[in-house]
Amino acid sequence: MAMVIRCFLTLLLFLVSTHLTSSLYEDQVGLMDWHQQYIGKVKHALFHTQKTGRKRVLVSTEENVVASLDLRRGEIFWRHVLGTNDVVDGLDIALGKYVITLSSDGSILRAWNLPDGQMKNLKADKDDLILVFGKGCLHAVSSIDGEVLWRQDFAGESIEVGHIIQSTDEIYVAGFIGSSKFYVYGLNAKNGELLKNDHTTLPSDTFGELLSVSSDKFVVLDNMRSKILTIKIKNGKISYNQKPISDLNKDSSGQAVILPSRIPELFALRMNSRVLLIKVTNEGDLVLVDKINNAAGVSDALSISEGQHALAFAQHEDSKIRLLVKDINNWNDDLLKESIIIDNQRGNIDKIFINNYLRTDRSYGFRALIVMEDHSLLLVQQGEIVWSREDGLASVVDVTTSELPVEKEGVSVAKVEQNLFEWLKGHVLKLKGTLMIASPEDVVAIQALRLRSSEKSKMTRDHNGFRKLLIILTRAGKVFALHTGDGRVVWSVLLHTLRKTEVCKDPVGLNIYQWQVPHHHALDENPSILVVGRCGPSLATPAVLSFIDAYNGKELNSMSLTHTVAQVIPLPYTDSTEQRLHLIIDINQHAYLYPRSPEAIDILQREFSNVYWYSVEADDGVIRGHALKGNCIHIIDEYCFDFRDLWSIVFPSETEKIIATVTRKSNEVVHTQAKVMTDYDVMYKYVSKNVLFVANAAPKARGEIGAATPEEAWLVIYIIDTVTGRILHRMTHHGCQGPVHAVFSENWVVYHYFNLRAHRYEMSVVEVYDQSRGDNKDVWKFVLGKHNLTSPISSYYRPEVTTKSQSYFFTHSVKAIEVTSTAKGITSKQLLIGTIGDQVLALDKRFLDPRRTLNPSQAEKEEGIIPLTDSLPIISQTYITHSLKVEGLQGIVTVPAKLESTSLVFAYGVDLFFTQVAPSRTYDSLTEDFSYALLLLTIVALVAAIFVTWVLSERKDLQEKWR
Amino acid sequence: MAFTRSQILFLLIQLCFSLLPFTFAQSPASGSAEGYTIYGRVKIPSAGTKDYILPGKISNVKVILNGGQRVTYLRPDGYFSFHNVPAGTHLIEVSAIGYFFSPVRVDVSARHHGKIQAALTENRRGLTEFVLEPLKEEQYYEVREPFSILSIVKSPMGLMVGFMLIVVFLMPKLMENMDPEEMRRAQEEMRNQGVPSLASLLPGAARSN
């Protein structure tokens, strides 16, 4: 019996340590990961509702996505993410079954099959002509085979082509040279022959775009934005009129802008918040049709029947939006008048696209696709929002995380499992699943059971630290909080500091920081987030700050600053309410301290001489180190500090250009400094937070692959101490070029670049070791206390460092590299590599170990050193995105969970993907599909066996005694 | 030219012209004078059969030039093309879920009017015609092993039960072969020790006894 119990215990331990899965089974998809697909801010939209069957809307977006959406639910039928340089300029439906897109400044024309998005060769019975405008050329493309029939080059005349007017046999091309000379060219539609041309000089320069009102009439504003010029072309001859805006509208204050809505015979002029609709008569006169106050957006005209055109526009009314559809010819009648309540966190209306449908009573109904200020997309029909898409999430600017609230006492937690029977039933099902004896219905039930486990989507902190909030700043200036459990939006807020105002014309969000992370003494306060933005793309525009409560998304405070922002430095100090101190560096060599409180000043004064930072001037090839000097001399502000340059490294500009810089994550935890080698030798890692990796390329090889020859390309990498400016390591890779993607962690850096000689990508690893601690091996020194292990690591003393490095080939191009991070840093690391195919590969750091040799000794093998190979293996089971793609991948973020073995990974681009990874497998917890039922069964069997043997032995004893 | 009137479709773009009105004046126009065209084909073998049929998911296959400089999609017959590629050495990658493609080194020769030489970079194999095929299929999921008695026996639970069975049924057999004298001595020893407690099971405690 003792034996049995002992073996049971050991086996239980054995079981816990072995019953682990390294990668994913297909039925585990969606268990710990989620994937969301987006398209981005819609630029063009076309409805396809003519035929019976699936109604769809085709869109092209600012993220270069062409997609077909389900008009009923807003789901994606198909989607193509074009390359980053392949900006979609135009979208149209041809022949009722193809989608035509024009992209890359009009140089690429593609046709897609409407139902499935397959790229097509245009095939048509009818001989149609597609006119395409690109790079100063007019192309006529046959719709039969996509062949270019003729081309007319206008680039030589430096004409800025604005419009094409077509009649049956002649095509007119109109445009400007400079901003006041107006030209018209008449072409033969059959062969592109130049027939005639005319030009005229307008009385003043023009402002903005030329808008065509009808096939032969154009309007444009003059450069004072006070007059409207009407240009008429008849048989290739130009005539023009001009009229001051004040004649049309008495109150003509504010700057006028012609809206780009295409409406026959009409155009819309925006002045302040008012929109004027102006009709252009046949004689070229302008007549004011209507004034719309608080107008938010005007759609293009929609032709509903012969000669009848409808126009939609929206007005803001408090929290509601009024949608009006009017007949253009019969202005007093409203075809549609609806009020819609829209969440005010969506901001103003940006664009409206309308579509009509036939109601059952043969009257026209209208549906409108609305693009909001936060880039979300809404479909409105019959006064209601049919569906909405949060497409702002397709353009992520920065990501941080926040903890969820701690579970309050009194709130019931135990609603997770229903009762014992249900629980057991669930586990029996899982057991069936693991034993592969489950029927298809059972498999479905198991999947549902797993996804339903409400544990992972609760709004409280969990013991393992898997549940967190992902705080995402988007390009639209909206901040989203996503739950890591299921990816739902917990809250979202459109920051008013990042909205367009008179003062702040073109605000951009820059970064997002953890402002207050309460633990210990400030636990009852909510954590908060700092969002830093700027009033324009230029560095010289003033900065804006917003502080947001991380639990509910309330904007706690916001500031429009008088100074600029060049760099934000989160300092490793917090005040009594756990607010982190931040220094904002402006472009005029000042540092500003936030939060602006006397306490923060006190803390900074105490640590004044310990604050160092660096700045990289990539254009000049200079890296500088800075330290604080004292309060500002010219600005009277006690939170303003001057700083001085400590050191600078100037790279020779004729041979080197900075292309990448990477530093360590400030919150990274290193578990051990020492590394024991196979021969019981100890190496000490050079673990410093103040190290910077710099990659410089030859000036000729800065561009794309294929631009430089191997002889004129080289890559120089540096590892620099950012406090002293000391170069710890320098290495040159000849015949190599960028783009360089790198990641710095602990004492090593891994970087990816292109080797032109082998014409393959390479990855290199550099590990930095502290040599000065190397003689601590002697035991006697420890005994006598002569070791220097207790001396603090400081940048003031110069340790001798050694580096080890190795390079390997890597198959794919890379878009981003990250490394897993765990709570204590004990778990071994994996590199997360975002490949060009928009997948994320987890590569064990052991493959990038400079100690790898061709024939590792037995001892080295036992330590886990892998024999050296020339290229890094790509094991398809280690793709953490499994069979999914994170389209348009931009970045990867890793966050440690509380459970040491696990790291949370969030990859973003046009799509969002979240999962958990365990680089050394989940050694500290049972896996999700651990079969409790099987365990129970075994225990029951064992107990039964114990009794049986007990009875047997009793009987045998008795027999012995009788004998 | 056969077309007479028919409906003329047009797409027109103003953006590029407003942005770059004059710079294009000097450079040669978009025509073919600037670069060469790379034509190629991607063939994905359908599972099981020998002949090449493109599966339905081909619309998600991307062909990438020089690490993302340009991206193109496949036509239904698997063909793709890059226009206006300058002469030089380029890299083409194919991204298709479920397949592993080797990147291809493409040399566009200026001397031979855009003659193209291609070689796979993974195994340095030259391509006589520009047809790209996957090197292998990629399996993203672990395959669950089908149910078998062996897998049950091999599982920790199975091992536990198996070991117990051995103890139950083989140990008595071993005991029988033992010398009765020795047996009695062992039993006596056991009796002296008393009832085994959990503490005595632990190796340290057992030694102290």
TrEMBL record, chain A:
Subunit structure, interactors included: Component of the ER membrane protein complex (EMC).
Record field: transmembrane: 930-953
Chief place where the protein resides: endoplasmic reticulum
Secretion signal, residue range per the UniProt entry: 1-23
Gene Ontology, cellular component aspect: endoplasmic reticulum membrane
Organism listed in the record: Flemingia macrophylla
Family label: Belongs to the EMC1 family.
UniProt feature coiled coil, ranges: none
Subcellular location(s) per record: Endoplasmic reticulum membrane
InterPro entries cross-referenced by the UniProt entry: Beta-prop_EMC1_1st, EMC1, EMC1_C, PQQ_b-propeller_rpt, Quinoprotein_ADH-like_sf, WD40/YVTN_repeat-like_dom_sf
Alphabetical keyword list: Endoplasmic reticulum, Glycoprotein, Membrane, Signal, Transmembrane, Transmembrane helix
Name of the protein: ER membrane protein complex subunit 1
SMART domains: PQQ
Residues covered by the ER membrane protein complex subunit 1 C-terminal domain: 745-962
UniProt domain EMC1 first beta-propeller: residue ranges: 24-391
Record keyword Chaperone present: no
TrEMBL record, chain B:
Residues making up the signal peptide according to the UniProt record: 1-25
Primary localization class, coarse: membrane
Bilayer disposition of the protein: Single-pass membrane protein
Keyword GTP-binding: no
Cellular-component GO terms for this entry: membrane
Xref: SUPFAM superfamilies: Starch-binding domain-like (SSF49452)
UniProt domain ER membrane protein complex subunit 7 beta-sandwich: residue ranges: 58-160
Keywords: Membrane, Signal, Transmembrane, Transmembrane helix
Transmembrane segments: 157-175
InterPro entries, per the entry: Beta_sandwich_EMC7 (IPR019008), Carb-bd-like_fold (IPR013784), EMC7 (IPR039163)
A Pfam short name: EMC7_beta-sandw
Location in the cell: Membrane
Similarity-based family: Belongs to the EMC7 family.
Protein name as catalogued: ER membrane protein complex subunit 7 beta-sandwich domain-containing protein
